[in-house]
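Q: What would this chain look like folded?
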Amino acid sequence: MPGSREVVLLDPPDLVDDYLTVRLTALGRVARVTSRAFDDTVRLEELLDRTVVTDLVVWLPSTGDDTLVRRAVEALMAGVATSGGSVVALAGPTVPPERVDWFRSLHDAYPAVQLHLLRHDPLAGAFWDCRGELQTLATQGNVPLPVLASAVADVMTERTPGFAETTLTATQEIA
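A: My prediction, written as structure tokens:
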């Protein structure tokens, strides 16, 4: 049923979350959450009591400790599995292979969930213009943010259980 899904954006970079929110609002309510919230048991229980997450978009970090990201994804997977939802992991060109392998391994524990790894070339920058409209910088060789947001929405619309992988390349020029 359109508009009835609970989509969580986990650790998206600034402005990327704006593009994703605008594009995914047609699916339902969209919330931005940081993985740091999952380090606090009380806050985690409050979040899970308030909503059942049906879909998740997670940004796989290229560097640093990803323990909280993993903990957050695993805590939200029960709701996603119950609803037959989807988890989309966004992975830039420098994400270590072991993080991709961890995401791929979630399929064994949650076979009813659509897991989709969306690899991408570096992303174009963005800014809010003087009219309050979100604009993508015309950066050649980078994936435009509207293209990324549309790809995520397309994947989440499918809802086909299993694991899939797509790569977005910087072949499109921004008008």
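The first strand starts at residue 5 and ends at 10.
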